Amino acid sequence: MGNTETQFTEEMSFAELFASEELVVVSVGDVVEGTVIDISDNFAIVDCGDKSESEILLSEFKAEGENVEVKVGDIFDVFVERREAEGGLRLSHEKAIGIKVWEDIATIQEEDGTILGRIDNRVKGGLSVDIGVPAFLPYSQIDLRPVKDLDALIGDSFDFKILKYNKKRNNVVISRRAILEEERQKLREEMRSTLQEGAIVKGSITNITDYGIFIDLGGLDGLCHITDLSWGRVSHPSKLFKVGEEVEVKILKFDKETDKVSLGVKQLKEDPWATVANRYPVGDKTVGKVVSITDYGVFAELEEGVEGLIHVSEMSWSKKTRHPSKIVTVGDKVDVAVLNIDVDAKRISLGMKQLQPNPWDLVIENYPVGAIIEGKVKNITDFGIFIGIEEGIDGLIHVSDLSWTERIKHPSEKFAKGDTIQAAVLKIDRENERFSLGIKQLEPDPWQTTIEKNPLGSTLKGKITNVTDFGVFVEVQEGIEGLIHVSEISTEKITTPVGMYNVGDIIEAKVINVSAKERKIGLSIKALTSPDADYGHYKPEASNEPSTFGDLLQSRMDEDK
Q1: Residue 451 and residue 556 in one domain
Q2: Angle at 510 between CA 507 and CA 515, to 5 degrees
């Protein structure tokens, strides 16, 4: 408040002090020191050494909605705006601050110093910061990396560098990033000399990508690849970490020339595959969590970093192919048996069906050979029909086991899907999981009874069913035919019996050859005239010819193939 040697005491009033001081004349535009000597409704009365009282609006000492923060005795810089016509000065504290700030701004930029500022609000292209005067903070100068939530910074105070200013235009551009880069550079230099491969350090996650996470170690950024995040399966790094999270990592590799740092999180733990064989011995039962499903099976996690494959063939005893997704879903916990371990390849084979009884073991007990079963036709093929026995188990009735005598070209001629039929159990092959059934076995073999009724040397009568160049076919019994070879028709040589006999004629002949195994009956007319002949070793001239009409048809079908 001017140059004066007058001492202020508690007994003196500000008015007395003002009267006793040596007056100093101030000029418009000066910045001088002023002392509050009184407060009125709208003004603070200030002594700035001039010969008259001066006023400052109280609104300069409060923010919107706040109380006045000024009292008698306060001393501060003021700017002389003008002399009032009635005397006295109009002063401004805010303008004095502004002038002082511009002086500071110039000095700070010249000396490459910093200035404290408070972020007020968002503006186009960046933020508005109060450093005594409004300053502009561009987006690119806020931080080392893009800031997602700018609103979260409003109200915070930081130190800033002055990039450029123009007092006439009241324009100041500042930077926080410049300070951070300087600090980071110092830390980087320190880290280059101290960072060692194998060291365990802490850092903050700055970015997450599909292939890994970037971590700020405090001067240097390092990359932890997705394969080094966990010993287990990682679908995406964001499933495990968040930006801003602090993590502990191991330095895997540090290239001092390029400042590239490779980091690892999983390396902080022992590789679970090193001791997996001890924890999951072959044959052991355990629980796994389904983490992935493919066409050929599912992968189940036994623990972090240890997954095993349950092949689709090991999921169920059923031979019916089902997609694994029809059996389990991702996230299911399943009971499994350890089938095989390859530690070097880091593979474990698991099975689900091994924990369930093998239905083929039960089949042998429940369906002994010779037993008669009933089931529905599930499938029809060229070679036979399949009958459903139990869940996942079908029995095959081969076309040759459909009938003793009838020649069936295709099983669909007699059966359809869904038909319920009975069959006899013929054979169960446990090793190859095959179940053989037969329909014809439900009845006695008519060939056996035919041979018993018509032994070698006996005479029989039958109806002619076909006449060919090489002989005549005679129905011995329903479905069973015998052949009278052309050489056995007469003692005289006959070229062909065609024209000599007609289909439907009844003829008498003698049995000269029988074979239940080959299902053939050889007949002779000329043998009727030689009743004492021994036919035990008799073989017709053309023994390789078909002995029944059915055999003939089959031979013709074979020739056509």
Answers
A1: yes
A2: 115
Using alpha carbons, select from 301, 233, 306, 309 the residue that is nearest to residue 274.
Answer: 306
What is the rounded CA–CA span in Å between residue 276 and residue 53?
91
Chain-centroid distance, C-alpha 470? 73
Secondary structure class of 31 (helix, strand, coil): strand
And the tokens for 154? 């409003």
H/E stretch holding 359 reads helix 359-366
- Tokens (6 digits) for 109: 């930029």
CATH number for the domain that contains residue 219: 2.40.50.140
Residue 6 covered by a domain: no
Q: Are 228 and 265 in contact (CB under 8 A)?
A: yes
Q: Is the pTM here over 0.90, yes or no?
A: no
Are the CB atoms for 501 and 464 separated by under 8 Å?
Answer: yes
Torsion 428-432-435-436 (CA) sign: negative
By the 8 A CB rule, do 379 and 385 touch?
Answer: yes
Q: What is the pLDDT of residue 556?
A: 40
Question: 331 with 297: CB under 8 angstroms?
Answer: no
- 491, burial (CB in 10 Å: exposed 0-12, middle 13-18, buried 19+): exposed
Beta pairing, strands 347-351 & 297-303: unpaired
d(CA 367, CA 370): 8
Instruction: List the alpha helices (DSSP H) in 140-298.
Output: 177-194, 276-279
DSSP label of 8: P
Pair 458, 552 in one domain: yes
Does one domain contain both 414 and 458? no
CB within 8 Å of 361: residues ≥ 6 apart:
430
**Residue from 314, 288, 286, 310 nearest 301 by CA:** 288
**Which amino acid appears at position 295 of this protein?**
D
Residue 287 and residue 264 share a domain: no
pLDDT tens digits, 208-226: 999 999 998 877 889 999 9
Count Cβ neighbours within 10 Å for each residue of 322-355 and write b for 16 or more, e otherwise. eebeebbeeeeebebbbbebeeeeeebbbbbbbe
Any domain includes 142: yes
The domain total for the chain is: 6
- Both 547 and 465 in one domain: the answer is yes
How do residues 321-369 score in pLDDT, each as one tens digit? 689 999 999 999 999 999 999 988 889 999 999 888 877 777 877 888 8
63 — pLDDT class (breaks 50, 70, 90): low
